[in-house]
Amino acid sequence: MDIVVKKQTNIQVKQETNAPKNPTSFIIAVALVALIGGALFLYSRVSWQQALLYVLGAFGGFVLYQARFGFTTAWRKFILYREGEGIRAQMIMMLVASIFFMPLLLKGSIFGHPVAGNVHDVGISVIVGAFIFGIGMQLGDGCASGTLYHIGGGDVNGIVTLIGFIAGSVIATTHFDFWMNTPHFAPISLIHQLGAVGGFLLQLVLLAFVYYVVTVIEKRRHGKLISAKTENKNGWKAIYKGPWSLLVGALLLAVMNALVLMINGKPWGITSAFALWGAKFVQLFGVDPTEWAYWQDPAKLKALKSPLYQDTTTVMDISLMFGALLAAAFAGRYAKPIQWKRPSRMTIGALIGGLMMGYGTRLAFGCNIGAYFSGIASFSVHGWIWFVFAFLGSIIGVKLRPYCAYKN
Question: 3-class secondary structure for the chain?
């Protein structure tokens, strides 16, 4: 009996010896190596612009995590509890981004390369796609940016959502020609239709209107504005350990998106990479995506035939996850073990939510970042239409969440 106990003790000691003494430090090191190494690789193989965009993607992931800047949660809190702090922060973010975007979009170029906003058609495909996306983001417990930064933050559910996201994107590309032939209007830019002053004033009115309505509804419910208290126990270390306020997150994300526009010539986007990853995956099984209408676009076809590291959106998506990983490690997230076990209903809900978001985002020319954030910041009517119908979809999605074992 003593021999068995000794053997068990020795095994336990050996396991503890082999385990990382400080998993947080190890994860920080991994994240930094991935970010620095990735930036150097892209600088040498692609360009300094690609390397800088990789860094900006990581910065976005870091900000999203430390400010807990979510679109899904913000909308859900307002739908269920009439708490609008998150939506107000989004409106401030849109306003600041619009101020930065406008001179760039009016000039049409910077640093010798063209600049264009995310301004797309307005029609049935956008309405249906945004509505589907809105339902999916609640079932998947995260939007496009949320899914990626949740993965970096150690949320296993995000991995399931991402798998569904990629699959839904691929399915949508096989139907792309059908949806593009549905009734629609040509792209409408407020500043191009109404001029710089008129377009900006209308944008300001719309943002202020949403801000005002959310505020009034919240005060009617609670008698005052409800603000999530950001308790800072880290002193000056909160700069890298967090948590940050939603306002800080909003301002930093607006600046980050403006820098992306300046360097890349187009605003921040996330989900086009998911369709690309899925297309490259099905190619492994002998499927030829180039037969689908979605890939007939020269730019998309070029991306499909090129290495993934040449795709800007892919590069920024990957670094976003590493940026969130770094932020989560600094915040102490990985001092606790990751919860791998999830209720089956939650896993199914995440997969369905991902499928819906993946399908919807291709129809609607973007997600909460590419269509909503970057679209509105680009003064696109398409962005505002996306917001309305994605929010309506979220109302339904919130009602379905309890069936997926989520606690609202």
Answer: CHHHHHHHHHHHHHHHHHCCCCHHHHHHHHHHHHHHHHHHHHHHHCCHHHHHHHHHHHHHHHHHHHCCCCCHHHHHHHHHHCCCHHHHHHHHHHHHHHHHHHHHHHHCEECCEECCCCCCCEEHHHHHHHHHHHHHHHHCCCCHHHHHHHHHCCCHHHHHHHHHHHHHHHHHHHCHHHHHCCCEECCCEHHHHHHHHHHHHHHHHHHHHHHHHHHHHHHHHHCCCCCCCCCCCCHHHHHHHCCCCHHHHHHHHHHHHHHHHHHHCCCCCCCHHHHHHHHHHHHCCCCCHHHCHHHHCHHHHHHHHCCHHHCHHHHHHHHHHHHHHHHHHHCCHHHCCCCCCCCHHHHHHHHHHHHHHHHHHHHCCCCHHHHHHHHHHCCEHHHHHHHHHHHHHHHHHHHHHHHHCCCC
